[in-house]
Design goal:
Structural class: mainly beta
Radius of gyration: 34 Å
Largest sheet: 16 strands, mixed
Number of helices: 3
Distance between the termini: 70 Å
Number of strands: 16
Order of helices and strands: HHHEEEEEEEEEEEEEEEE
Helix content: under 10%
Length: 299
């Protein structure tokens, strides 16, 4: 019926003509809709199904093979990492020894959420553009030494080790806060592969240095060992195969009394350091229970 009506009046008919040819308002409305939606050359494109882009490839994926290779401990320059850190000057009770679960696997329970923890977003960065860059011609990148970012450590990495080349204040001004300490030979912070049983001693000497605007010379000795792996539980994350690394640093200035400090770090493939505890000065015990600083990867 509609087809015959269309043929009789045509889509180009005037509305008055349409009214004269039909008294049925429903038929008239249907006809007007058909004319509006049709056209001699109109085509309807076939739409393809939505295709999502593939996820970006991860530059490093943990394989939990019992060791950390150099490719699994590369600095991600410019990528901020959030740490929960105990307030400056606060002392924390800490368990660096851990315990054994029912399957005789070591576990460190560091998951308690502490209300007074503070958040620090730290990141490694390029040495280029730093005021002290020319003093470290073999340096590759820098990272904050302290949570406040006032002092920066300069590193280089190769297939043998992650090397510490020295330290510098983040700014050379004011002059009374300027520091520039270059080791005469690089210090091995981590030797590759990092695995349980590894241990080494490395020393760096500073000559003609500057510490807080004053002349400085001294010798720093690093005693490092990787002595356990296990599950590390943090407030926001759990790492199933973290490596406990113990570092004792003894600082012997040319003027003054030597001091030592212990640090227990937990490393994980592709993530680097995910937690640490730093002892008070001259702590005698490997498994110290009072920390001057605790930091944990978290939100």
């Amino acid at each position: 019926m509609l087809a015959s009506f269309e043929a009789r009046v045509g889509c180009g008919a005037h509305p008055a003509q349409l009214s004269a040819n039909t008294a049925d308002p429903l038929l008239l409305a249907a006809f007007l809709l058909a004319c509006a939606c049709s056209g001699e050359n109109r085509t309807f494109p076939e739409r393809s199904a939505y295709q999502s882009s593939p996820p970006p490839e991860l530059s490093c994926r943990p394989n939990l093979d019992g060791k950390i290779e150099p490719s699994e401990l590369k600095a991600a320059l410019g990528t901020p990492v959030s740490y929960l850190i105990s307030p400056a000057g606060a002392r924390r009770t800490v368990d660096v020894a851990g315990s054994l679960d029912s399957a005789s696997r070591r576990v460190w329970e560091w998951s308690t959420d502490l209300a007074d923890d503070q958040v620090a977003r730290l990141s490694a960065s390029s040495l280029s553009g730093k005021w002290y860059a020319a003093s470290f011609p073999t340096g590759q990148f820098v990272a904050p030494l302290d949570a406040g970012g006032q002092t920066e450590a300069v590193y280089a990495q190769d297939s043998a080790a992650l090397w510490l080349l020295g330290f510098a204040s983040a700014s050379e001004l004011p002059a009374q806060n300027k520091s520039l300490l270059l080791y005469s030979q690089p210090v091995a912070i981590y030797r590759f592969p990092i695995q349980v049983g590894g241990s080494w001693v490395s020393a760096g000497e500073v000559r003609d240095g500057t510490l807080r605007g004053l002349p400085y010379a001294g010798r720093d000795t690093y005693q490092v060992s990787v002595d356990a792996s296990g599950r590390l539980e943090l407030p926001d994350l759990t790492f199933t195969q973290a490596y406990r690394t113990r570092t004792k640093v003894t600082v012997e200035p040319s003027i003054g009394v030597p001091i030592s400090r212990r640090q227990v770090s937990f490393l994980f493939e592709c993530f680097g350091e995910v937690a640490r505890a730093v002892s008070l000065d001259d702590e005698p015990k490997d498994d110290f229970t009072t920390a001057a600083e605790v930091r944990r990867l978290g939100l």
